[in-house]
């Protein structure tokens, strides 16, 4: 699988992310995609061919393998990375829509001024506020949802995160309870725990980014309320000052 398209796509969205979002993207590609491409695929490349059962009954080995490994670890991790990265589409579409609206307004200006403004829009970083804030927070929420769902699915499908050396199978057409042996179980357990740990780190980063955005939005709202109350007090003082002057003028007259 070519992960270059995913990297290019997320790299464009990363331009408008927070600092924590940039760290999350680095963890995704360094500790998950690279490990998956460089090491994990070679470790799980022999999973079915080296799955050995102590029987020669036709079909027994395939049935037992399908029972204990209904979905390949590699394919499940690939699906997880795709689903976790998909919510970034929301942010990308929102940014593209805002840029399109700004370009439409700029193109109504004069030629040279419009060209300069178009170049500024291409280099501009969108501030995460207003409607874009809601879109960004929604994308983080879906990231957390997908990460948690896949971790639960992984635990449920494989009955934990540890790869056992021996499994017992009595599914049809096996003549009786047969012993089946998994190749390189310790190495696969190490990689499984590493990938799960990377998922947990990504979840913590998403939670931290969500808290950061909420706190920042609350502080921004508090500043606006304080500024608006300050402006209101100035207006009231100005009106009171004018009223006092008017009263003094009436008294003198």
Structure description:
Helix content is 74%, strand content 4%. The protein is mostly helical. A three-stranded antiparallel sheet has the order 1-3-2, covered by helices on one side. The longest helix is centred in the last third of the chain and has 68 residues, at 185-252. The protein starts with a helix and ends with a helix.
What is the compact description of this entry?
The protein is mainly alpha-helical. The chain has 8 helices and 3 strands, in the order ααβαααααββα. The protein starts with a helix and ends with a helix.
Over all CA atoms, what is the radius of gyration? 30 Å
Topology pattern, helix = H, strand = E: HHEHHHHHEEH
Q: What is the structural class?
A: mainly alpha
Low-confidence stretches: none
* Approximate strand percentage: under 5%
Any idea what the shape is? elongated
Count of DSSP strands: 3
The profile of the biggest β sheet is: 3 strands, antiparallel
Q: Name the average pLDDT.
A: 79
The rounded distance between the terminal residues' Cα atoms is 90 Å
The number of distinct helices, counting runs of at least 4 residues, comes to 8
Widest β-sheet, arrangement of strands = 1-3-2
Helix percentage range: over 70%
